[in-house]
């Protein structure tokens, strides 16, 4: 009955199952499958997980980082050759790469050992040139000493005759001294006797280190950059550039970040020489070059390596003057040739007595390093300092206590202050800061402060901008990021013009105006080039 209730599909399914079972029974598949399953169960063995042996961790030693300077090793110059040769063929003049030197020496270094040129004859030529300039300067100094006697005769003549005259002496050598004498006469009138020892400058009855430019705008527009006044002096970034304070020969000294110092005789007429001489007296960046006007054969150089050296052309040696913490700036009072002022370490100021070879005074003036030191031309006891701590300060050296010296004036910026320089007349102070400001501080007591916007973000590959005064209080020069030189007019608190030239292939960052040649301006780049602008 049950089978009769099945559907046709179910009947066929049951028939297929029965047929398959009969076929598998005929082939003995069920018995073989059972035998195979039993065999597999007997052969199965117990397994164990083997854990790997733990290796003890090696102890990593604690490495204390030490700079190359503290280890007495030279700076890493990897990539220097590429940097030096990038624009080698693009410059009218260039120098060969410097040869390797041994680690820093705690003592004197002969100029021949520090020389990086190919021919030692070039070293001798520079020494002879510097000695020649120095001798001419001494002649100028003797003229000034003789003028003192002449001055006394004039004054005695004034007393006798009751009238006065003026005396102007022009010396063709380097400017060395200016004398001004005032004498009161009957009737309340005063006359002056002046002696201007400056070649190529505007003659003034009263010369105070500045130059009065009568037609300023046309004069500025006449500044020109000639191809022969462009040269690559050094590999890498130039940090400081200085003119020799002499009008008889155009000579420039420059220092770079690798410890090299280069000299460029712009007036070199030797066809076999380019007038460029390269030395390496330091193992760290050059922070300052000081060329005393009274003795240009003795040139002081300072560096981040903590060395203060004096290049003595007579002895042909870079002598060691002082060694200590990193030195970031160096200066000298205009009326004191026996002392050096340099910024050392984090905010320290050291006064070094050249005669005794010892430090006479030292103060902690800032919370961070001192970038520049400058003195007022009218009162050398007034000093200005700029610091990475964001301040520029004016000090009176006569009233500074030993422990906590007080400032006469403090100018605050929101970022590091890279420079603070007095104007030629001493009545104003110009500061340059990373906060994109150029500060002008003026007034009887420097109470007037004005901030002029200027893009000072040079980045890590360029030297910071430092605004400098020209030959009077009328203009300030500073580089810009468009390969030009901005000219700031302090009276209008703005940039009045920009010096540009097709011969400028890089951004000029550091400048120096010639002490006696009006209109001669040197600018240095981070590629080792120096540009010299001169009037047409």
Plain-language structure description:
- The chain has 536 residues and is of the alpha+beta class.
- The protein has a domain of 342 residues: YVTN repeat-like/Quinoprotein amine dehydrogenase (Methylamine Dehydrogenase, Chain H), CATH 2.130.10.10.
- The protein is 17% helix and 33% strand.
- It contains six helices and 31 strands.
- The strands form eight sheets. It has a five-stranded antiparallel beta sheet with strand order 1-12-11-10-9.
- A hairpin with a 3-residue loop joins strand 10 and strand 11.
- The chain is elongated.
- The N and C termini lie far apart (132 Å).
Question: Helices, strands, pairings?
Answer:
Layout: H1 8-27, H2 29-43, H3 80-85, E1 109-110, H4 111-114, H5 120-161, E2 179-184, E3 190-195, H6 216-221, E4 223-232, E5 238-243, E6 251-256, E7 261-265, E8 276-279, E9 286-290, E10 298-303, E11 307-312, E12 317-323, E13 327-331, E14 339-344, E15 348-353, E16 358-364, E17 370-375, E18 382-387, E19 391-396, E20 409-412, E21 417-422, E22 429-433, E23 437-442, E24 448-453, E25 468-469, E26 476-480, E27 484-489, E28 494-499, E29 508-513, E30 521-525, E31 529-535
Antiparallel strand pairs: 1-12, 2-3, 4-31, 5-6, 6-7, 7-8, 9-10, 10-11, 11-12, 13-14, 14-15, 15-16, 17-18, 18-19, 19-20, 21-22, 22-23, 23-24, 25-26, 26-27, 27-28, 29-30, 30-31
Gist of the model:
It contains 6 helices and 31 strands.
């Amino acid at each position: 009955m049950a089978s009769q209730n099945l559907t046709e599909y179910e009947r066929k399914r049951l028939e297929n199952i029965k047929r398959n079972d009969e076929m598998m029974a005929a082939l003995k598949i069920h018995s073989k499958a059972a035998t195979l399953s039993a065999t597999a169960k007997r052969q199965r063995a117990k397994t164990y997980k083997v854990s790997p042996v733990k290796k003890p961790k090696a102890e990593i030693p604690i490495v204390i980082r030490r700079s190359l300077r503290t280890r007495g090793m030279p700076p890493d110059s990897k990539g220097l050759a590429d940097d030096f040769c990038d624009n080698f063929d693009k410059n009218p003049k260039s120098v060969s790469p410097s040869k390797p030197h041994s680690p820093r020496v705690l003592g004197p270094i002969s100029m021949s050992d520090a020389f990086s040129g190919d021919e030692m004859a070039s070293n001798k030529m520079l020494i002879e040139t510097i000695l020649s300039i120095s001798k001419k300067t001494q002649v100028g100094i003797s003229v000034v000493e003789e003028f003192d006697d002449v001055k006394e005769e004039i004054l005695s003549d004034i007393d006798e005759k009751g009238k006065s005259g003026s005396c102007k002496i022009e010396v063709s050598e380097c400017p060395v001294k200016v004398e001004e004498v005032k004498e009161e006469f009957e009737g309340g009138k005063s006359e002056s006797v002046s002696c201007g020892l400056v070649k190529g400058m505007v003659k003034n009855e009263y010369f105070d280190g500045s130059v009065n430019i009568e037609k300023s705008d046309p004069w500025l527009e006449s500044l020109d950059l000639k191809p022969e006044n462009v040269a690559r002096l050094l590999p890498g970034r130039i940090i400081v550039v200085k003119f020799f304070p002499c009008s008889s020969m155009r000579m420039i000294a420059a220092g770079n970040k690798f410890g090299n110092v280069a000299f460029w005789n712009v007036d070199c007429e030797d066809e076999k020489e380019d007038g460029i001489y390269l030395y390496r007296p330091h193992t760290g960046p050059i922070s300052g070059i000081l060329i005393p006007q009274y003795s240009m054969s003795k040139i002081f150089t300072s560096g981040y390596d903590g060395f203060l050296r004096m290049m003595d052309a007579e002895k042909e040696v870079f002598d060691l003057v002082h060694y200590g913490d990193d030195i970031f700036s160096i200066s000298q009072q205009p009326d004191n040739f026996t002392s050096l002022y340099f910024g050392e370490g984090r905010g320290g100021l050291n006064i070094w007595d050249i005669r005794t070879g010892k430090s006479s005074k030292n103060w902690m003036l800032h919370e961070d390093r001192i970038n520049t030191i400058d003195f007022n031309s009218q009162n050398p006891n007034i000093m200005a300092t700029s610091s990475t701590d964001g301040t520029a300060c004016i000090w009176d050296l006569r009233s500074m206590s030993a422990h906590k010296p007080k400032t006469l004036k403090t100018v605050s910026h929101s970022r590091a202050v890279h420079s603070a320089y007095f104007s030629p007349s001493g009545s104003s102070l110009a500061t340059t800061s990373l906060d994109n400001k150029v500060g002008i501080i003026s007034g009887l007591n420097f109470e007037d402060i004005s901030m002029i916007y200027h893009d000072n973000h040079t980045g890590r590959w360029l030297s910071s901008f430092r605004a400098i005064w020209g030959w009077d209080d009328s203009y300030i020069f500073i580089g810009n990021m468009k390969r030009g030189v901005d000219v700031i007019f302090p009276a209008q608190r703005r940039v009045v013009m920009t010096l540009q030239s097709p011969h400028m292939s890089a951004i000029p960052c550091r400048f120096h105006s010639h002490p006696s040649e009006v209109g001669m301006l040197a600018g240095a780049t981070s590629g080792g080039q120096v540009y010299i602008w001169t009037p047409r």
